[in-house]
Amino acid sequence: MQTQVILMRPSVDLEELYLPFYKEWVESGEDMIPWVISRDPSDFAAMVQYLRDNEHAVNISEGWVPSTTYWLVTADVTSIVGAVNIRHRLNEKLLHSGGHIGYGVRPSARQRGFASALLGQALHKTKELGIDKALVVCDAINIASEKTIRKNGGIEDISYVEEDGNVIHRFWIET
Q: What are the distances in angstroms from CA 103 to CA 79, 107, 118, 120?
């Protein structure tokens, strides 16, 4: 990867970069990961406020935990290439199949090292939240994500099988 990237908090100033990122995910038909990118951005300011509220545990749904979202932006601030959602703590569901960190790279930016950079930078943010050991998970069929997690120091734990039979590989990473 030659393009330098930085994590930035969601901001209304980044709307013109975010909308093509969002549109590409929607048009790809793929699951939108992390889940926060599936939020409808038509009221962009409200979406950004929703993400900020999640960080401070304001108006979060019962059973959810506070989380901080960052967008992975090219250093020249011309494109958003990925997103990460960092959960501040784990509940029972997250312990099995969600983990502390959910991340994704837009389809057109894959295979260029962005996922490793995204996870590496997210681990530093996780440490700043006081989390010394982060749980990062991926579907067993997602070999690329497993390689990214292992490259960032992931130590495999016991896998979890969801009700629908999907196998989740679980990894712990020292931050």
A: 17, 13, 8, 11
CA dist 66 to 27, 53, 92, Å?
29, 9, 14
The gap from C-alpha 102 to its chain's centroid, in whole angstroms, comes to: 3
DSSP bridge pairs for 134: 173
pLDDT of residue 2: 64
Beta strands in the chain (DSSP E): 5-8, 67-74, 80-87, 101-105, 133-139, 155-156, 160-161, 167-174
What does the DSSP 8-state code read for residue 147? Answer: H
Alpha carbon distance 63, 25 (integer Å): 27
CB-based contact 162:139 (threshold 8 Å):
no
Q: In this model, does residue 4 exceed pLDDT 70?
A: yes
pLDDT in tens, 5-51: 999 999 999 999 999 999 999 999 998 999 999 999 999 999 999 99
Distance separating alpha carbons of residues 112 and 2, to the nearest angstrom: 8
Return all residues near 107 (Cβ < 8 A) that are at least 6 apart. 24, 25, 28, 30
